[in-house]
């Protein structure tokens, strides 16, 4: 979907159409989504709201309405389901579809055109689509002609297309990895193609095989409609920096409750709690603790989060953001242990 949250807000409020819009909090929050009018000024998602305001003084902030976004996302998923059962959602506004055995005499490009037209008819919103023979290239293609675009990378053009792109455009290569690659002279897909598998695995570990493959337009990952969620998290940015540990511990309580509520609803339990702390000067750290057995309730999550917070809280800049993530997820009831004292170990 194109600028999904912001586009929903512009759809529902005609006064916002054609104007720079950011979904998020104006005072101490971050931009959750920016309209294309705002993006022209450099406003991007995950950007601190105050910086966004400096870039675009006329920026209009709108509070997020996640219940509405989820409802629209469900409408879109129902459209997808008319074409294939092999749907792998990545978020509320993005998904992979495998049409290999569901073409019924049509091309994948034709089906992508139909889906985009139906999304516009049903939701009043625009979507962009990428069509190719694997997930990596389909993702690259979907960004090629945004907004409201369609781009196709046929099999004979895949490797050549990859070679023409800067490494920062590659899905699966984040900013930190891109910087490491650039330090080795890898600026483009063509540069990546020239590296041996031994070179890449020596410097990037098990990801080296993936990078070697994508430089050649190869991606064997299947579309997985049953993709298992790896973590459940919640975080909050505060209007004023937290400077007393009692206030920070109190602020962790609703985060622990939210994480547990989502885990409970999904029938999941986890073994690892990760605490995220962002200080007033925007430095960010994480601390994690893993248990031998799954946590049983939100009180256990909160207790570990508070223990992780204590040694890292004191900072002259105060704390502007806190987050809790539960990972090491499994179905509730799997591997029920006998009663015992749980052993703890830290993960830096």
Automatic annotation (TrEMBL):
Active-site residue numbers: 94
Gene Ontology CC: cytosol
EC identifiers of the protein: 2.7.7.7
Catalytic activity, as annotated: DNA(n) + a 2'-deoxyribonucleoside 5'-triphosphate = DNA(n+1) + diphosphate
Gene Ontology molecular functions: damaged DNA binding; DNA-directed DNA polymerase activity; magnesium ion binding
Subcellular localization, as worded in the UniProt entry: Cytoplasm
Domain of life where this protein originates: Bacteria
UniProt-listed PROSITE patterns: UMUC (PS50173)
Pfam annotation, one family: IMS
Membrane spanning residue stretches: none
Keywords assigned by UniProt, alphabetized: Cytoplasm, DNA damage, DNA repair, DNA replication, DNA-binding, DNA-directed DNA polymerase, Magnesium, Metal-binding, Mutator protein, Nucleotidyltransferase, Transferase
Cofactor dependence: Mg(2+)
Keyword match DNA damage: yes
Binding locations of Mg(2+): 93
HAMAP family named among the record's database cross-references: DNApol_IV (MF_01113)
Subunit structure: Monomer.
Family: Belongs to the DNA polymerase type-Y family.
Alphabetical list of PANTHER family matching this protein: DNA POLYMERASE KAPPA, DNA REPAIR POLYMERASE UMUC / TRANSFERASE FAMILY MEMBER
NCBIfam families, alphabetized: PRK02406.1
Entry protein name: DNA polymerase IV
Organism field: Paracoccus limosus
């Amino acid at each position: 979907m194109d600028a999904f949250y912001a586009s929903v807000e512009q759809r529902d409020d005609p006064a916002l159409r054609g104007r720079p819009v950011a979904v998020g909090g104006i005072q101490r929050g971050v931009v959750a989504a920016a309209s294309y009018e705002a993006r022209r000024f450099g406003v991007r998602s995950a950007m601190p709201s105050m910086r966004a305001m400096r870039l675009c003084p006329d920026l209009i902030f709108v509070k997020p309405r996640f219940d509405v976004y989820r409802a629209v996302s469900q409408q879109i998923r129902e459209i997808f389901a008319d074409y294939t059962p092999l749907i792998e959602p990545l978020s509320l506004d993005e998904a992979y579809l495998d049409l290999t055995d569901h073409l019924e005499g049509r091309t994948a490009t034709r089906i992508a055109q139909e889906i985009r037209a139906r999304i516009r008819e049903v939701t009043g919103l625009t979507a962009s689509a990428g069509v190719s023979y694997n997930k990596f290239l389909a993702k690259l293609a979907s960004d090629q002609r945004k907004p409201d675009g369609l781009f196709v990378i046929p099999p004979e053009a895949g490797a050549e297309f990859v070679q023409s792109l800067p490494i920062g455009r590659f899905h699966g290569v984040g900013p930190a990895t891109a910087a490491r690659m650039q330090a080795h002279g890898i600026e483009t897909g063509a540069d990546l193609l020239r590296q041996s598998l031994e070179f890449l695995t020596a410097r990037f570990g098990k990801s080296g095989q993936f990078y070697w493959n994508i430089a050649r337009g190869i991606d064997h990952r299947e579309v997985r409609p049953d993709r298992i969620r790896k973590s459940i998290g919640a975080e909050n940015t505060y209007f004023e920096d937290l400077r007393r540990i009692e206030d920070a511990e109190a602020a962790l309580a609703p985060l622990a409750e939210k994480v547990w509520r989502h885990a409970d609803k999904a029938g999941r339990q986890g073994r690892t709690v990760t605490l995220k702390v962002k200080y007033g000067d925007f430095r960010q750290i994480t601390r994690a603790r893993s248990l031998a057995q799954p946590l049983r309730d939100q009180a256990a999550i909160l207790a570990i989060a508070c223990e992780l917070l204590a040694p890292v809280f004191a900072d002259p800049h105060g704390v502007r953001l806190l987050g809790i993530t539960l990972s090491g997820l499994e179905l509730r009831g799997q591997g029920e242990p006998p009663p015992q004292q749980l052993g703890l170990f830290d993960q830096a």
